[in-house]
Write a structure and sequence with these properties.
By secondary structure, the protein is α+β, with helices and mostly antiparallel strands. It has three helices and four strands; from the N terminus they run βααββαβ. Strands 1-4-2-3 form a four-stranded antiparallel β-sheet, with helices on one face. A hairpin with a 5-residue loop joins strand 2 and strand 3. Helix 1 packs across helix 3.
């Protein structure tokens, strides 16, 4: 049976870390992350799964200010998310906030899953 890797990127923004879910952001942000996020080979081969949860702080001008890792299952997954988030910070576009407020904190989560199920039969 073929082994497929499933990398779920979920960008859940919570205004001021509240419990109400807002929109996921613009296609530009999603595309930048999707094109650059890779499942680390060592983690994939070891069957390592889990969610990396981080907090991002947007400053009063709408620019990405700080990124803080809140939870992580492993250092290799943290490194991958951190590398991509550095790229996001370098290429940040305040328009990606859409209708979300600047000068706020938001949560982002990246879920890494290894699956043995063939997507054609799922």
């Amino acid at each position: 049976m073929k082994r497929y890797i499933l990398l779920i990127l979920s960008f859940v923004f919570f205004e001021h870390l509240a419990h109400g879910q807002a929109k996921t952001g613009s296609d530009g942000l999603n595309e930048l992350i999707a094109l650059n996020m890779k499942y680390p080979a060592n983690a994939r081969q070891a069957g390592l799964e889990g969610t990396v949860l981080l907090s991002v702080k947007i400053d009063e001008t709408g620019l990405l200010d700080t990124i803080t890792i809140l939870e992580t299952p492993s250092e290799s997954l943290t490194e991958e998310v951190s590398q991509v988030m550095r790229l996001v910070k370098e290429n940040w576009n305040p328009e990606w906030l859409e209708d979300k407020s600047p000068d706020s904190k938001y949560l982002m989560s990246f879920q890494f899953l290894v699956t043995n199920q063939d997507p054609a039969t799922a």
